[in-house]
Amino acid sequence: MGVVVFPGSNCEYDAVIAVEALGATATFVWHTATKLDGVDAIILPGGFAHGDYLRPGAIARFSPVMAAVADFAAAGGPVLGICNGFQVLTEASLLPGALQKNRGLTFLCQPTTLVVSSTRSVLTREAQVGQELSIPINHFSGSFTCDDDTYASLVENDQIVLRYRENPNGSRDDIAAVCNLDGNVVGLMPHPERAISALLGSEDGRVLLGGFLGRPAFA
Predict the structure, then answer these.
(1) Please, which residues have CB within 8 angstroms of residue 51's CB and are 6 or more apart in sequence?
(2) What residues are labeled active site?
């Protein structure tokens, strides 16, 4: 699988370590790449792509690699955007909605409890609806927003895949993660790659990343 690296990404190694702990082989993909040869899944990791100038993800969405990511997603390939990666996917119109500054204009770095809302995405297919997962957040612009028509479509098409049990950032309807119509592109603000071991405080991230990779969460 490939982990895309933009100037300013800072969670790419966390993502590689996490997926390799689940038995996958990962390689870095630089943002100037125009092809995604030899990968069967893509992760856009957290960080501050291009320094978050303009707004998070707004410049990264024009990187050459994003055309390749869009083609990969259109062909049914699994794509996961974590935190800043989620912001990039919304800016690139690969996911609906947008991420705005947190309620209270406060940077948040803390554990959160997520509730699985849908299992029709590649990220949640190994989970159960209603299952609670402890996954940390680390963001300033993580409040999910969208217009009423988009929200109605998300609900109707079962595209809200994770919600916060206690909303930390003001996201509409407690939304922590959404997927595209086909369920193969997912974005979430919390960091499952930082919850793969009890030594880190939680290993619930294995449930999500294991589903994304199509591998057992616990070997």
Answers:
(1) 7, 8
(2) 83, 191, 193
Mean pLDDT over 70-89 rounds to 97
d(CA 90, CA 49): 14
Which secondary-structure segment (H or E) carries 18?
helix 12-21
pLDDT at 217: 61
Which amino acid would we find at residue 63?
Answer: S
Residue 171 is encoded by which pair of tokens? Answer: 């996201």
What percent of the chain is predicted at pLDDT more than 90? 93
CATH superfamily of 2-213: Class I glutamine amidotransferase (GATase) domain (3.40.50.880)
Q: Are 18 and 212 in contact (CB under 8 A)?
A: no
Please check whether residue 193 is in contact with residue 187, taking contact to mean a CB–CB distance below 8 angstroms: no
How far is it, in rounded angstroms, from Cα 60 to Cα 84? 10
User: Does the predicted TM-score (pTM) go above 0.70?
Assistant: yes
Contact 2, 198 (CB under 8 A): no
Mean pLDDT, the chain, rounded, equals: 95
Give how far Cα 189 sits from Cα of 36, 89, 98, Å: 24, 12, 11
What pLDDT digit, counting tens, does each position of 23-41 carry?
999 999 999 999 998 999 9
